[in-house]
Amino acid sequence: MSTVLRVESIVKRYSDHAVLNGVSLELARGEAKVIMGPSGTGKSTLLRCINHLTPPDEGRVFLEGEELTSENINKIRQRLAFVFQDFNLFLHLTVLDNVRIGPRRILGQSKEEATERALTELRRVGLEDRANYYPAQLSGGQQQRASIARALAMDPKVILFDEPTSALDPELTGEVVAVMKQLASEGMTMLVVSHEVAFARSAADKIIFMEGGYIVEEATPEVILRNPRSDRTRGFLKAIGEQEAV
Amino acid sequence: MSEFLDFAAEHLPYILEGLPTTLALWILAITFGFFFGLLLAWCRIYGGRLAYSLATVYVEIFRGTPMLVQMFFIYLGLPEIGIVFDPFTAAVVAIGLNTSAYQAEYFRGALLSVPSGQMAAAQAMGMSRMQALIQIVLPQALRRVLPQWSNEAILELKFTSIAFAIGVTEITARAEKIGYQTFEFFNTFVLVALVYLVLTATVAELLAWLERKTYVPGVTARAG
Ligand SMILES: Nc1ncnc2c1ncn2[C@@H]1O[C@H](COP(=O)(O)OP(=O)(O)OP(=O)(O)O)[C@@H](O)[C@H]1O
Ligand SMILES: [Mg+2]
User: Fold this and answer.
1) What is the pTM of this model?
2) If you ran DSSP here, which 8-state letter would residue B30 be given?
3) Chain B nearest C-alpha distance from A56 (Å)
4) Is B19 an 8 Å CB contact of chain A?
5) Which of A88, A175, A241, B81 yields a CA-CA distance of 20 to 30 A from B57?
6) B151 within a domain of the structure (yes/no)
7) Where exactly are the structural domains of chain A?
């Protein structure tokens, strides 16, 4: 398996306080990894450091072997999509335009090509009938699915998800999780910060448990969810009510 | 009443001959104010230290002194250092520079009110900061600023009357002339006030239409 994303020893400090203490990880093509961990542990910061939305203080990131630098960042981000906790759909654009703007204005496709692509991705997330709605006219689950379609329209090599369901009402998480499962099964390479254990169990190749700016352990879902090596992982899973009986 | 109507019928045409001048003053000044105000707001938010300071000082000076004083300075003061404008141009420059300071503050507020996640999402897709500002932040900011901007535009329409003080024969100047010819100052100024009233009401209606036309749910609170 070839490595698509490699993250090497990321360090991030805010004033004197280190939020990330040298975090490294790799994603092979088609792999899905889920990051879990207590609040304030640096999970969002890690994702934002990976695509340099927050520039890391130390460490390196490689996408398909190419190191991210301040020069190539805009080019690399086209292939390294990000899905936000609170969607961040462009508020003044319809759903169709939200999905189309990337291929059209960033990838430079023709209007027809970009529209075609956008409609394909909207069908993929089940939103073709909402193409002409504005974000404010959609439910949270629909908005998140639209933002996933927006990411997909860029034809990314990797998608980073930062708690994609945690801003949603419980009854709306299912539709978003279903889309993400579908993507994982189609071979999309994904790094997902999420406490959706059901998603992790069925779709993740690995679960990474983070705490205090470190990766505590990384293992298959069966191992992490049934028999984690670290007591801290066990304690966290118990706290979110997901430590399974052995 | 019929006496006033007769007065109006006789003198309105002469006053209305000043309408193109008034409208030209207004349109040139607010258009200049729009672009320069946007640039000032841009400098204050995104500019470096120097751009920020210059724009801030500019805004404070022009908001802190009377427009009439600014206009006299431009028309009567600047020639002493070799910068000469005809009255119309001097009035456009004065009103334009003044309104740009106010518009800058409205634009600044609107730009800052766009949620930061919009910029983050645009950059995360591979847009440069400039591209994100122009394609994502600015269209939202302009929609948000429209109600305040409309007020400012209407205010400036009335302020074009100060150009009369440096000899521009716009509608107020023409009314004053009629006043001294007829000595019917009461009727004269009621008449010219009505002209301004119709103008501002028309402009307000147009801008309200623009607001409805560009309304997007979730960007602005409601269509005006
Ligand atoms: N811009 C910032 N300035 C200062 N401190 C910050 C900043 N952003 C994050 N932090 C701090 O970094 C730490 C990690 O934050 P982060 O958002 O990455 O945690 P998280 O694991 O994503 O938490 P959650 O599960 O609540 O989303 C927190 O202590 C937070 O207060
Ligand atoms: Mg977070």
Assistant:
1) 0.91
2) H
3) 15
4) no
5) B81
6) yes
7) 1-79+156-246, 89-155
